[in-house]
Amino acid sequence: MHYIRFCRPPEVQAGKPHATVKVILAITTDLSDFFLSPRNPIQLVVIGAYTEHKDGKDQLVPVVLTQGNPPSWRAGMRVLKLDLPLPPQPIETIQIRPLDRQLTAMGTGDVLPGKQGLIMAVYADMPRPGDGRAPSVCFRSLRLSAGDAAAAGIAGQPLQIEEDLGESIARHIWDSGIVMVSLLADMCLDDTVSAKESPLPLFRSILQTPSHPLRILELGCGVGVMGIGLARITSLKRGGNAPHILITDLSEAEEKARANMARQAGKLGNSPARLDFEALDWEDGKNGVFGEKARFWPMGSCRFV
């Protein structure tokens, strides 16, 4: 997996006849330790969006900002600088992704097959010209879909997770969380695969047909991709008792994890999962010292073994 990253916040500059947005981006691995070096140049598309009031409700209207002249990322590049004209409408968000849909990780169904490396799009709120403020975060969007779930309209809402701009590993999305959420979506949302055909059949059975309300503990949640994704997935699939999911990490991860929990307000369905964060140092945990919330069935996304 590779990720399009803003090297610094998008900068809007007023001008005549139109304003422009300056963007500096890179495409790297999850830890930003390697740059994407494609065999052939990869064309990118930059899409802005503004709000339009129509039929009694507000809706986002996309606008392609790179129409007719798509920029490209080439082997050996470290940064790509763009200076793009803006339409007269006030652009509220900006999205950058590969022009080729097959190269883009848009949904969990794209990630799980693992047939080729994919690139995750990046989104950010747009600053207003002259307001002196710039966004400090960007966010990723991954549609929760597997098998016939998307076609049936079960998984229509994307999972949005924010991360900090900059190089902090603790506040970035990692491959392990994206892959684990994709596996969980396949287990819970795809009814076309039998338990015998599915990887981890016992685990799949526990998630799909629990004999009691699930209590789940995630160790090392980072920005919260896996635990929050599981809460969204189980709420899409299950009725009745909602699972109780506790995500944990060092205290410095709490602010970003809670911000991403807040992003899910109103998107957890009719049976919302109980979702909470607690600071937990693994060095304390391995010695039996935990926080106030205990006696959970553990499940963690593990990157380092």
Automatic annotation (TrEMBL):
Gene3D superfamilies reported for this sequence: Vaccinia Virus protein VP39
Family annotation (SUPFAM superfamilies): S-adenosyl-L-methionine-dependent methyltransferases
Domain of life: Eukaryota
Pfam annotation, one family: Methyltransf_16
Entries under InterPro entries matching the protein: Methyltransf_16, SAM-dependent_MTases_sf
GO molecular function, one term: S-adenosylmethionine-dependent methyltransferase activity
Name of protein: Methyltransferase domain-containing protein
Source lineage: Eukaryota, Fungi, Dikarya, Ascomycota, Pezizomycotina
